[in-house]
Predict the structure.
Amino acid sequence: MDKKESGQEPSVNQPQLDYDRRYTYADYLTWDDDTRWELIDGVPYAMSAPTRLHQKIIGNLFVQLYVFLKGKHCEVYLSPFDVRLNADTRDDTVVQPDILVVCDQSILNKAGCAGVPDMLVEILSPSTSLYDRVTKFNRYLQAGVREYWIIDPEFKTLAVHLLKGEDYITRVFAAGDTAPVHVLEGCTIDLAEVFDD
């Protein structure tokens, strides 16, 4: 995830962004759809295209969550899917996590999610590792995301961050493990299947 320049020329609909300014969701909606963006506290981040392995892991995990949730109240979604973490206040944070689980249907709308999902998942890539592990980690913690998963395809590990009070408690799982989804009672994920390529 490269802050500032995305490597593309701005289109007619894409303004040259001013990185001394803070943007809102209203600004975000005016930007050209040819480049995917996220906003963290008003700061724009251009999103790079995912790799094949990244997409394979997303699909493998999504299938397990989808099968478990079929017929249940909670729902699972894939990126690109706008999540406005502070839609009721400054509305200056819009993220597109790789996978999200939402149990509170009232925060879902036609455009995406206007509120805090129960679970967010990010799959690391060399260009997003620091962003996902620091910037998004801190923003998700601040927003009160109950469960945040970070999957590392290179080392085939999963770091599960569970919200306890005002901090995350972290547990790491390896490719052969089964990981419980704490926000979904009875749901476990076979990581061998997630990392199967």
Notes: Confidence is low (pLDDT under 50) at residues 1-14.
